[in-house]
Every structure is written in C-alpha cells, then in structure tokens.
Protein 1
Amino acid sequence: MTEGEEPARPRLTVLPPGVIAGFAVVGLVLGWSVRRICDAVGRIPPGISWLQVSMTFFAAAILAMVGRDTWRAVRSRVAPLDFQRAVNRLVLARASALVAALVAGGYAGYAVSWLWNDVDYARALLLKSSVAAVGGLLMLAASLFLQAACRTEGDDSTPGKR
C-alpha cells in the first residue's frame, strides 16, 4: 500500500440463493418431523396461536421499514448512511433472511404434516401454519429488500460505500 492510499475494507457479499434455499429445506424437514416425532413419543403436537402467526407479519413489517429507510439513506446526498451502519444493516438482513427461511420452511412443513388429517384441530393447525408460512415468506422478502438496499450504484457487494 502506498502512502495516501485507503486500506481495503472487508467485503461482505449478498447471501447466495442456495444458502437461503438450504435453510428453507432444513426448516421444511424440521417442521414436517415435529408431528411425526410427537406421535412417536406419545405427545400431543404443539398448537399454534394467532399471536405467533401475527409475529411473522410484524417482523416482516419491521424489516421492510428498515429496508425503506436504508434505501433512502444510502441514496441520500444530504445525510448518507455511514459505512459501519450500512454493514450492520447488511448483517441484520443476512441473519434475518436465514431465520425467515427457517421459519417459512418450518411452518410450511408443519402445515404439510396436517394435510391428510380430517380433524377440526388439524384443519385449524393447517390454516394457522400456512398463514405463518406466508408471513415467513414476507419476512424473507423484506430481508432480501433490506440486503439490496445496502448496495450502491456501481458496487455490488460493499454496503453504503460512496
């Protein structure tokens, strides 16, 4: 490095789609196996409340608002987002995407495990877990939007750099 040259900053890239898909598949298998394991050990499968379902939508809304604010701040000429905050938001987006993929996959797997059961309790769990899976997908979309909001024009991987 020559004098006056800025040191290279570590580069954080966006999360690869294969990793997100892998987490979703793990969640799907885990969610599907919950009922099977409960049946095998003689336990009642866990219920799902509407509060749990609503939390997936609430988390998606929070992530979407942070993404919108980040998008505006990164592109602002008046008060641009500093590098460290952009990195923090990118890390939040990456972690949220992984958690959202697990949540969406887990609830979807739990819903699938109740598909061929014709009991009212099973129908209620199928409905709630399906709606929660949609909330998990919205969480995933919002976290991917937040991840994209950390990018600037002309730079595909470093967040908030001007």
Note: The chain is about 70% helix and 0% strand.
Protein 2
Amino acid sequence: DQRTEMTAREWPARVGAIIGNVEDAKAHAATAVALAQKLRERHELANACMYSGWLYALEGDWQTARELSDRALGLEPREPRNLATRALLELQVGALDDGERHLEQLLDPRRVTAWSLLEKFAMAAFLPMAARVTGDDQRLDLARETAEAALAATKMPPFMHLYGRIGLAFVAVQRTDRLLAAEQYAAFESQRGTAIMMAGIAVDRVLGLLAATLGQEEKARRHLEDAIAFTRRANYRPEYAWAASDYADVLLEQGLPGDSERAHELHDEALATARSLAMRPLAERIVAHSAAS
C-alpha cells in the first residue's frame, strides 16, 4: 500500500529530526518523495519535498534545502510553512531581499483576513525568528497578536501549539518581558532535549534564553550547555552556531570568574561555523558582540 507508506514515512522523518537522528530522518523522507513521485500525488509530493528540505537545512546544506523548497513551491506556491522556512533560510545566509520576498508573500494583505490556523502558527513562529537574525523587530507586535490568536483556538494538534510558543518565546527574549518568558518556559520545559523540526531550533536554547531573561543564571547555563551538546551530536550546524553564540553572550552578561575565557572560546567556535556556512548576519553579530566585550 504505497499511499499509506508514503504518509507513514513522514512521521519517523519528523521524529528523527526531533531527537537528532537526521540521517535516519532523511532516509524516510527520501522514500516518501520517491513514493509520491510514483503516485503522482501533487500535494503529498510537495509535502515530502518540503519535509526533506527542512532536514537538509538542519545541517546547513543550503543548496539541497533550496532545491527541495523550490520543487515544493513549484507545486504549492502559497504553502505557508514553506514560505516561512524558506524566508528564514535566506535571511540566515544574508540574502535579505530574497528572505523579505518570501515573507511578503506570507504577509500578502489579500490573504491576511483568511489566514488558516496553519498560516497563523507559521507567522507567529517565524517573524520573531527572522527578527532575531536580522535585528529588525518591527513585526514583533504582529507576531505576538497572531500567536495569541492562534493559541486561543479550541482544537489543534499539540505540535502546532509549540510553534505559537516559539514566537512568544522570542518576543519575550527580544523585549525582556519576564512575565511572557515565564509562561513560555513552563510550556517548553517538558520538551527539553529535543528540537522543533520545522523551526530547526534546539528546545534547550529557547529554554536557556528564557531562563536568562528571567535572571535564572544556573538554569540558563545548564540549558545552553545541553543545547550545544545536542546540536553538536546531531550535526545541526546552524543551530550549533546560534547556541554557542547565545551562550557566549549569556556568560559575558553574567560575568562570573572564568566566564570571559569560555565566552571567547564559544564566540570563536560559533564564528568559524557561521562563516563556513555563509551565515553572514550571525557572523556579523558575533564579531560585534566580541568587540563590545
């Protein structure tokens, strides 16, 4: 039953990404793509290509991720998850015009009033993530409003709930909103030791940033150490660079004995990874933070 297998393959692919077994995930996703091609299922082929693209982006293989994203967008040009993740990919590598073009398609005023729950969660998660990359936080109010509206829905799959929480978490961090940070920390704590697949984020990095916002120094350190260990083991190189950079910033802010040396080591590691992956905005951010310290 190839149709059932095609759909079923998506789930171990998702689980593999969540627990950090990306090679296994990619094998299942590739099989789903091959089955969708045989069956000529337009929607399912678009989905399978999109899932595969996310997995390659986790490793920083931007070219393969782009190719799969393009293939999926060719089949479903308005897919909100694909537009959101593709925008973030382009922003990560400094292709700001391309990233903005994909975000504008998602924000098209002609579709805003008819946003589905899926579109709301894509908006809620990725606008604050984009702001974290670019430093432009002018859409954070929209992200928060959209997240809160989506989370108010009475029925939703549990995993979608996390995407709304991602957006609110980054809003809390960007604006040092302790009340909002405490709410998101409580929501994410049970997910520690995993990654959020579509967003490509280690949950412990989110928890570490939230704990730092709350002034909980030991928790922040522990979570960020765990994020670095997870992303290194899983070979999620872009997320490793962000986790190392964020941890260095937290250490410099806390300023305990030995923190400066450790922070500089982490900044060096993050910068080397960011440059090897052509993540220009992050590299520039690290250089600026290093100079300021």
Note: The first helix runs from residue 2 to 19.
Protein 3
Amino acid sequence: MSAIILAADHRARGIMTVERYDDYLAALRAALPCCDGLMATVKPLADLAPELRPDQTTWLSLNRTGLAGSAFELDDRLVATCAHAAAAGCTGVKHMTRIDRDDPVTAAALELLGRVLEEARVLGLDVMVEPLAWRAGAVDRATDAVVEAAVIAHDMGAPLLKVPVPAAPPGTERVDAVQRVVASVGVPVLFLGGPRGDRDSLLREIADAVAGGAAGMAIGRSVYQDPCPGEVAGLVRALFDGRPIDEVLTKAASLR
C-alpha cells in the first residue's frame, strides 16, 4: 500500500483553516488529482465525492465533538455513523481516539472505538483509526507515546492506522522512529502531515516517513492551506513515487 489521503475534517472541530467555503473546496479540488483518496466530514465529502475518480477512496470522519481548545476536547463523540458512510457508498470511516492516562474520559473513548470497529466490520467498511497519545492538552509525539497509542488501537482491531510522525531529529533517527512504529503493528500505517509549515520541512519529514516504511500519508492543512495546493500535493506524490528528496526539494525551489 502507498496512499496519499487528503484530510479535510478540521473545520468541523473548530479549526478555522479556510473560512470561505468556496475557497476551501477550490483548494481541495486543486490537490485531489495527486491524491488517492479524500477523508472529510459530511458536507465537504458529499460535495466533492461526485467529482472523484473511480480509483479514489472516500472516508467519512465520524467524531468531531471535541472542539479544539475547548474544555470538552477529549469528549469526542460521533457526529456521523458507519451506516451513513455505507449508505453514501464510502470506502470507509475515520475515527480519532485520544488516549490520556490522566483523564477518565479515555475509557469511554476506547469503548466508542471498539463499537465503531464492530459496526464497520458488520457493514463491510474499512476503518482508518487515528490513535493519539494526549498529554497536558496536546498530542504527545514522543516515539514511545506514538507506539503505545498505535499498539492499543491495533490490538483492538484497527485495520488501518493514522499517526503522527514521531518527534525525532530529522534523518536517521526519525527514520528509525518511524520504523519502530510500523514494526509495532501488523497493519498499514499512514502518517499525518499536521499544521501548515514550510514546504522543505514537510517534504523532509515525508521523505523520512517513506524511508521508515510508511504506507502513506494523510495530509490536510499542510497542503490545502498552501497558496498552491496542487503543487504541494504533486511534490508529496513524487516522494511516494520514489523520487529522491534532493530532487524533490530542487523542484520545490523552482516552483516558488
């Protein structure tokens, strides 16, 4: 598996990435030709799904009640269902589970994950699970934490994982950290792109993920918030097509 999934479910969690909806859709449309699928909440997925190629996958994002920065951020309940995804003809569903050992709400979150996995299995849907270690109100990207969260979701039955690239120094150490995450489970692992930053840092991070055995990337803000979403998506595609990082960085410089 080598997949690039465009993630477009941030706004429903109160992360105001692109305010004007028409601009938001335009940015997603520009990036989609270089992607293998789209993961989004109900409205953007419904608006864009008819435009996708037959070989592109669709993933409905299920739980978004944990608004970013809110007092109830970890209380992340369903806003859509597996049945909705099945009726809409989606490939699968995406479910985020944040694991905070200091917050009792985590027990209910794990129970909800188990229920989603079972409902999806019955309906014949794939499930992309995003397990995140949560510490002091933020994602813990330490390698140990990424591995622990991945293992918990995997052993509950997650058939596909979406996790952060571990916060290790770029190059060999980050490649080794990615390899450790991938080796801790027996299913494909996608790595997420995170907030928009500079292109070179993003591309180097993706190159390390590819070298470490990533099955793909689930990227959103770092692509569709760029002034040229199609260009960034094309650069990411080049890395997964086997182009060397130096060649891709040179191409990126020529596009500025």
Note: The chain has a mean pLDDT of 96.
Protein 4
Amino acid sequence: MFNIVIVEDEELEREAVREILTDNLESVNIIGEARNGSQALKLIDSNDIDLMLVDINIPQINGLDVVKYLRQKQKNTKVIIITAYDHFDMTRTAIQLKVDEYLLKPIREQALLTTVRSSLMELGSGRLCKEMLDRINELLEQKNYQEGVAVARWYADWICTQQEYPQADVVRDFVSALFAAIQKKGLRLPADVTATINELQKNNFNQFTSSQVQSVFLRAIDVLFNVDSQTDDTDVIQKALNYIERNLKRRVSLEETADYVNISSCYLSRMFKKELSVNFISYLTLRRIELAKDMLLKTDLSVTNIAMDLSYNDVNYFCKSFKKEVGLPPSEFRDSCRNSA
C-alpha cells in the first residue's frame, strides 16, 4: 500500500479528503492525520511516508516549514500542497522545496483523485504492480471475485492508456507477477493463456489490443480464484455471474453464458429468477450501468466513448437505459456528482 499522511487543521476538510481517497483508490493507506505542524513532525519522525497532503495555513508550525522538515528526513516523499491562497511568494517557496503538486481550496473530488493518482504513479509502475497484486491477494482471502475482476480490469485499462511508463514493461511486470502467484498456489493456466503470456514477456506487446491484454489478466484471475471448480446449483449461478462480470464490456448473451456453465439457456434463466429474483437481461443491464457510473465518475471519457466501450451500438439507447435505472442522463449524473463533491 502507498502510505499517505493528511495534514489539515479543519476537521471537515480532513475527513472529506480521507473519505475521497479511501473510497476511490485501491492501494492507499492513510497512516496518519495531523491537525497542526507539531503533530505533522511527529508523523514524519515515526513513519515512512509515500505521499503527504499538507495545508499551508495550519497552527503552531506552518505547512511550508513542515515540508522543509520532511525534505530533511524523507527526500523522496511526494508532497501535495493544499491551500486557500494563491500567492506568488508561497508558490516560489513551494517550488524550491520540490513540492510535486499544488491544489487550491475548495478542492474538487476529481482534481484531488487525478492529482494523487499522478503522484502515486510516479513512485514507480513496479511499485503499483506490487500493490495491485497485494490487493488481489487480499481479495482472494476474502473470496471476493467481483472486486478482483474490477482491480484487474482497472489495471489493464490504466496500462493501455497511461503515458508515464513503457506499456510493454508494465504489462510484463503484471503478467509475470500473476503467473508467479498462480504457480505458487500449484495451479495451472490454460495453454493458450500461457502462450499469450510468453509472447507478452518477449516484448511483443504491440501485437495485442487492450482488450486482449485485459482478457489475459481476467483469465489469470479466474485461475487464482479457482472459479471453474464449482459444481452445485449455487456455484453454477456464481460461475455465470463471474463470467458476466469479466465480459461486461461486450454483448454477452444468455446462450453464451449458459454454454460456458454447461447448462441449457432455459435452465439458466430459471436459476436467475430463482436465485436472484431478476432475469438475465435485467441483471446484465444493471451491472453494465453500474460500470458506466464508475467510468463516468473516475474517467474523463465522453458519454459516447463510454457507450462504445460497453458495446452499446446506439448511444441514445444507452442514455435511455442509463436514465431509466439511475434517474438522470449520463452527462447530468456526472455533473451532479462532481458538483456535489
């Protein structure tokens, strides 16, 4: 986990920052909070800090002096200054202290998340890879397959869109880590997945699309969570849900899902109604809308691109479906959530 310290004298501001980070970022650990400069110095002395968010105008010892002390003790810590003031002299001092980012109050949720993500990425793609794998191992212990898929999907999307690190290197790091975890558990990957991983490890990343990379990650997650070992009715429906979860971005059908779990489509349809009190199409729509909501809040992709990414051929149909389930069109939902942050 990335260790984060929040230095802010206003309790509501401090709580808001903590909740935004812990609710939206997988790999952060808020190891300490300080209401004044003296408390901040004690945290610096007693912790290894990856990232510090520090308000300038705090009691006892001001934020810039806290940063000066931090730089003497932990030179590589990322620092994001938070302030209600935009003064040239303060900015100049912050630059001299090698502050990484600078946010003005009131802080918008998306601006905070974007800034923190950017700072954490700079700590190293290999470090992030380790954090993702640690998170997946936690989810394995919790048997939380759905969240494991979400983590792998997020990481695959990030790899294929980020510009900070060589994509081939990041892909190789993660598939190698997944492969090692699978071997450690005494499990085996399907032969075609092993062949793809071997190609990726040979620096042939450019031969693969982002969806193919994501597919490799998700099939490795399947093996780690041992989702193919299920046998009774409850496990069969869970296996079907798992299959839907990792195929949300394409037009998965009832028949295809039934084939995957080796039962008839009619029987699978009855199982959905019995176990979940909802039919297959309704469940699929709800999950795709939930993923769309997540993409609207956590990315800057246009509504059209999100609809296309989720395999909606008609953007208007996507918007109508979204509004039916959420109560607002996608663009209004995004604006409403961001304005209330």
Note: The longest strand covers residues 28-34.
